[in-house]
Specification:
Subcellular location: Mitochondrion
Subunit structure: Homodimer; forms a dimer in the presence of potassium. Interacts with MTO1; forms the GTPBP3-MTO1 complex composed of homodimers of GTPBP3 and MTO1.
Protein name: 5-taurinomethyluridine-[tRNA] synthase subunit GTPB3, mitochondrial
Largest sheet: 6 strands, mixed
Number of helices: 12
CATH architecture of the largest domain: 3-Layer(aba) Sandwich
CATH topology of the largest domain: Rossmann fold
Cofactor: K(+)
Radius of gyration: 31 Å
Distance between the termini: 41 Å
Strand content: 15-25%
Strand order of the largest sheet: 3-4-5-2-1-6
Number of strands: 12
Oligomer: single chain
GO molecular function: GTP binding; GTPase activity
């Protein structure tokens, strides 16, 4: 334990890297390593009401003056309406809102300017070409604005990751997680760990240097040992989160499996709210794995509709069954679907014996925590419910046809 922790202690003792200083040149700070001023369309491509074009670097003020001549720079951080013109020909380009952010009080820490123009492709293209004609400006590389903000100490590495996640967030849960990281939640946690390690190292060094003196507090080494062990427990708990953050970022892999004609494709269509899979009473309709991304109550998921698991079929369907079984091993969650009105059939019994029951308590492959049994076609059941003689684990009872049981309600758990 101590060898690995001492490595962390040594790194923490050096402290976090200080952000690169914002060396002023005129009214702004140079770009990291080059001094170039960059520009790019910061909003999305395509027709829209408003498009935002941003510049960053020491020539941002010159670019703003060139496109709004003869007007001078607007007040800092205040939107002003300006007529944009091509600096070469003087041809009007658009009437737009412009903003001026002198560094270091800007997103990147450099001088920045923003042009909020109308979002037509011709307008955006004309303004970008005009900026390209201003001396000292060049198109930005992908992610260069954020890279400059990181290099100049405006964003930490975890905040940069949170910003990227926020931009790509498609569900409410992803948005909330990204916003927490962008606000520095992970940075504060890591900083607390580093402070604990630094304090423990200081106590150990004090004991080594002054252990024979009477000026040291009693038990200082035991206190450092206790703090490091508590930190080890905290780090272990953080690492044993089953990769929840990564699953939330990339989406959970949900595999829908079961015997033929159990209603797997109907369930996938119901969850995705669109006809992703072909639904047919003919067994073996789905022969390959069909995938579709879905938003399940704010959480991202990738649904996989698999071929019906059965034996004694042709080579094409056998390949589909083989792929289905492979996806079962890779799944974060397995929705095992059975026909509630046909639990005694050979295909249902075989699926229960080979997939569902082996996933019970003590399962060596870990399926017990990631398999959910779904009994479909409840509309075909008599009033008494499923066959009481069937030895079933906890299950959900629903009907993809009528929608009964598909809403968050109490089920058989």
């Amino acid at each position: 334990m101590w060898r690995g922790l001492w490595t962390l202690v040594a790194r923490a003792a050096r402290g976090p890297r200080s952000p690169r200083p914002c060396t002023r040149q005129g009214s702004g700070a140079p770009a990291p390593g080059s001094g170039a001023t960059v520009f790019a369309l910061s909003s999305g491509q395509g027709r829209c009401g408003i498009a935002v074009i941003r510049t960053s670097g020491p020539a941002s003020g010159q670019a703003l003056r060139s496109l709004t001549a003869p007007r001078d720079l607007p007040p800092a951080r205040k939107a002003c309406l300006r007529l944009l013109s091509d600096p070469r020909s003087g041809e009007p380009l658009d009437r737009a809102l412009v903003l001026w952010f002198p560094g270091p009080q800007s997103f990147t820490g450099e001088d920045c300017a923003e042009f909020h123009v109308h979002g037509g492709p011709a307008v955006v293209s004309g303004v970008l070409q005009a900026l390209g004609s201003v001396p000292g400006l060049r198109p930005a590389e992908a992610g260069e604005f954020t890279r400059r903000a990181f290099a100049l100490g405006k964003l930490s590495l975890t905040e940069v990751e949170g910003l990227a996640d926020l931009i790509h967030a498609e569900t409410e849960a992803q948005r909330r997680q990204a916003l927490r990281q962008l606000d520095g939640e992970l940075s504060h946690l890591c900083r607390g760990w580093a402070e604990t390690l630094t304090k423990a190292l200081a106590h150990v060094e004090a004991y080594i240097d002054f252990g024979e003196d009477d000026n040291l507090e009693e038990g200082i080494l035991d206190r450092a040992d206790s703090e490091v062990r508590e930190l080890e427990v905290a780090l272990g708990a953080h690492l044993r989160d089953a990769r929840r953050g990564q699953r939330l970022r990339s989406g959970a892999h949900v595999v829908v499996a079961g015997p033929p004609n159990a209603g797997k494709s109907s369930l996938v269509n119901l969850l995705s709210r669109k006809p992703v899979s072909i639904v047919s009473p003919e067994p073996g309709t789905t022969r390959d794995v069909l995938e579709t991304p879905v938003d399940l109550a704010g959480f991202p998921a990738l649904l996989s509709d698999t071929a019906g698991v059965r034996e004694g079929v042709g080579p094409v369907e056998q390949e589909g069954v083989r792929r289905a079984q492979k996806r079962l091993e890779q799944a974060d969650l397995i929705l095992a679907v059975l026909d509630a009105s046909d639990l005694a059939s050979p295909s249902s019994c075989n699926f229960l014996d080979t997939v569902v029951m082996p996933a019970g308590a003590g399962s060596p492959n870990g399926r017990s925590q990631r398999l959910l049994l779904v009994l479909n076609k409840s509309d075909l059941l008599p009033a008494g419910g499923p066959d009481p003689s069937a030895d079933l684990p906890p299950y959900l009872l629903l009907s993809c046809l009528t929608g009964v049981g598909t809403h968050p309600q109490a089920h058989h758990f």
